[in-house]
Amino acid sequence: MKIPFRVGVVSWIVLLSYFVYEPFAIRASLAPYSYLSQPMSDLGITECGVGTYPWADYFICSPHAPIVNSLFLLTGMVLLIGLWSVKERLELSRIGRVGFTCLFLFAVGYSFSVIPANVSFEWHTYPALVMIVVAPALFCISVKLNKGKMLTIISAGLLTIIKVGIIAVAFLPIEWGGLLQRLFYFVFYCWGLGMMVRLKGK
């Protein structure tokens, strides 16, 4: 059964709406929170304190943690719907289908973010590392693509630059990791919404 166009569009809008909610979670934080340097998942930590997970040598206290973690789970499920709604409207090459398989694995890995880092750092972190396949997957999808080719290539390029930046932050004294993480998801969600708009009528 084909996912209705409106459902596909709404799924990507729902994903983008996380960024509308996040400022409320940040404002509610009982500890100083920096969206520039701290990861999104810090807002999902379910206990207050210093050293709540291996990389957190600073104080965290997020009253909105249950809501944030619920949104992480919802994001994983909605992302699968959004990706499928794009895929079934495209005529893909073989390598393009491989690219979408990688994106579906990314969506599944993102769903593990529902496990707070202070509960299981490994299960929270390692599945999410599948995000490294997103940019290469988009390049694969762009092969022999008719509609949305330039959007896909540009998005893949931007995601590559952002990912290189995230890696560089780990070795340089630049505290922009949180901002880069948010930009990564924002660009990817905008790609999905943009593709649905381009594929209207299919």
Automatic annotation (TrEMBL):
The keyword Ribosomal protein does not apply. The keyword Membrane applies. The chain crosses the membrane at residues 7-26, 67-86, 98-117, 123-143, 150-171, 183-199. Keywords: Membrane, Transmembrane, Transmembrane helix. This is DUF998 domain-containing protein. It comes from Shouchella miscanthi.
